[in-house]
Amino acid sequence: SGKALGLRMLGVIWRRVASRSVRVGGALLATGFGFHATTKCDALELVQNSLDQWEWRLKENDSPQRSEMPDQNEVAASLCEPVLATPVKVLDTPGITITEYFGNKASKDGTVSFAQATVHRADEAAWQTPRFAEYVIVESGTLELLTVHEDGAQVTRTQVAAGSGVYLPAGLRVKWTWPEPCSYTVVCLPAFSPLTSGSDPGVSDTVVDRSSNDALVQLHMSAGASGLSHLPPLVANQHAPGITPLLVEPVNVVEAPGITITEHFGNVASSDPAVSLGRAVVKGPSQEAWQAPGFDEFVICTEGSIDFLYANGRREKIGAGQGIFLPMKLRVKWIWPEATNYTVLCLPAFSPAICGREAEEDATNAKDSASMRKLEALHQKA
């Protein structure tokens, strides 16, 4: 099954954190981090064709005669479908609440975690050196990150205000502090695990007390995500003193009559082709043209609702507080029945060149031709 395939692949996937590619036949299907553990492509299997490349092939017992072999890009697209996400409160303490939509616990997949956090008071965490990279968007309040100064003795303070984003590379020794209540969205690559968070052992942590941390470990163990066989390798040694988090200012990449999309990380905002993370504001009932993107999409709806039309009239719907995963190559139409806000993560990063958007002019489409031309121009300059 797709789930079993995902579990078999996790160890291999983590050994290819820096550079991975998956192909359908000879065509590129995925780069960066995939989410194939939960897709429903049961007629396909991943076959390794080199040290760092895999390709989707029809399973031997499902393969027709060569003369009848269908196009495998079409097979992959037709057999994959959206996967609804069930959010899980992985932490809920007087200091902080973290709701995970995708990750080791929520979706039982270790390639990426995508969560929303609310800090309820001025607080701080212990020093840590995570084995995963972190992409953070601060929605309200202020986040302050402490790192070691280049002299090795002093501390450098990086302040992240509401509306800004910050990137923390794997292996960065850092202390999170919140001078006031704060809310933020965080993506970890690979997915967060207590066993790879790198928190200093035996150090008091006021935002997450010891009992809450123990419960978090048990939560991950119950999800089957914290066994030693599932641990990612050290993707980076601890960075030398003087390295600080990278502040990233958002860019409005789409400003159309029906929708505004703000990119916080990606090809335009941070020159990152591997990951894009953005927020969208849909101003009223509208829809998007049909598309079959060359990237996986992870969506969290924060206000309103979204319908996803696919596969000859089939439909999935999410509302505020719900999430959905859209596998790459899935032909899908987004429909917004009302004003809606959502956050979307694309792996690899969104690009007009691989968005698979079909030529479709409709008065109810959220994006007009002018906004699409601007989007393409921004990516050409990036």
Automatic annotation (TrEMBL):
InterPro entries: RmlC-like_jellyroll, RmlC_Cupin_sf. SUPFAM superfamilies: RmlC-like cupins (SSF51182). This is (S)-ureidoglycine aminohydrolase cupin domain-containing protein.
